[in-house]
Amino acid sequence: MSNKIHACSFDEVIEKNWPQGVKKTRQRVDVYRVLYEARTPLSAAEIYSALSSNSAKETYAFSTVYRNLLAFEKAGIVVKNVLSTEDNALYELKQGTHKHYAVCLMCHTKIPIKTCPLHEISHDLVKALPDFEVTGHQLEIYGYCKECKKTLSH
Amino acid sequence: MSNKIHACSFDEVIEKNWPQGVKKTRQRVDVYRVLYEARTPLSAAEIYSALSSNSAKETYAFSTVYRNLLAFEKAGIVVKNVLSTEDNALYELKQGTHKHYAVCLMCHTKIPIKTCPLHEISHDLVKALPDFEVTGHQLEIYGYCKECKKTLSH
DNA sequence: TTGGTTGCAAAATGTTTGCATGACC
DNA sequence: GGTCATGCAAACATTTTGCAACCAA
Hints:
The structure is a homodimer of 154-residue chains. With 154 residues, chain A is α+β, with helices and mostly antiparallel strands.
């Protein structure tokens, strides 16, 4: 199906990254696979339709997708993020290094930002927020991508 | 009702800040007032209930709140932000200087951050995103506030 | 075997829309 | 007076939940 190149096979990835305490079911593995093969964060609807189209013979319930995403999130292998440009939540596998995106306000393309701009100023942040224990953050950059910028100027 | 101290009266504020092209109605002025007197971003539901409780004799429709918030947003005097910790959108009057918040994951308190951490590194951002026209950004800091930190350690 | 997971349907939630009435400029 | 805003209800989209059947450990 996918011709993306990964360091090791999907089975190995599953073997290696499956969180303990989470029962391994067909549906969960399939949700994981969809997230694994995606390059951008996906909505529950996108995951559901990817599941349904990948294997027409199998059945999946929408609620199962949500429940499994929640299970993954609790287990710490999935991040749920809510962007201002979308009216639904997006999910992605948690990477070793967390990611930020530049979101195009016109076509909603999400361009990953290589480095985390906050990393360099985290000490300033801590200073600015005494008595607050920072555990994480979310950052979105808004604007217009190359293509849409063209459209705008016409 | 409110005993907050402002530089000038509400009427003067309205007079000064009302966007042109937006018809001034009782409902819109009241929505504006609620936002103006709030110190944190409010949800549509919070605004609606503030309206309803402030003046029991007047009627307000939920849809009017949404429509007016949208009108304000289009007029550029209100910012809508969607946080990962909330399951609904929050609205606030756009300040001269934009704001960021540290959000407590436990009690959802939003602590304003005085300075924008991104301001200092914006040139790096621009360099990291060629061909992308940055028009804005949203930043949330997650963690635990002073009070909830205590609760956690017990 | 047994407790967690699934599918289905229904409910809950937040938000948007259609339409007739009403209010602002 | 004409246009736009409002209230109401109904539609809508996303997400959650109740429950019986089912499956992985």
